[in-house]
Amino acid sequence: MLWDAGGATAASGWADSGHLGLVADPGRPAPAGEVLDWFAATAPATAPRPARTVTVSSAETHLFPALDRLGYRHPA
To answer: Terminal CA-to-CA distance of the chain, rounded, Å?
Structure first.
């Protein structure tokens, strides 16, 4: 899925089996929250796989606050 802001792609997310790959423009990180909300609705944390996981590049530190707000953990 793609999220636009100001006529340009600001974020993208792809989900598969409870896992999300997330990329967002560092100048417009706000849509990352929308991507995470979409993921929560698309891949509810239910048994037998109760945990959802998200992968972001370690260089995309602008995404860490959105992940932290929703309780995702990232390596130190």
So the answer is: 28
The alpha carbon of 27 is separated from its chain's Cα centroid by a whole number of angstroms, namely: 16
Per-residue model confidence as pLDDT tens digits over 31-48:
888 999 989 888 876 645
Burial label for 58, CB within 10 Å (0-12, 13-18, 19+), is exposed
Residue with tokens 């109760």: 50
> Rounded to an integer, what distance in angstroms lies between the CA atom of residue 13 and that of residue 35?
6
* Residues β-bridged to residue 21: 14, 55
HSE value, Cβ hemisphere, 13 Å, CA-based, for 9? 8
Neighbours of 39 (CB within 10 A): 22
47: tokens are 């048994």
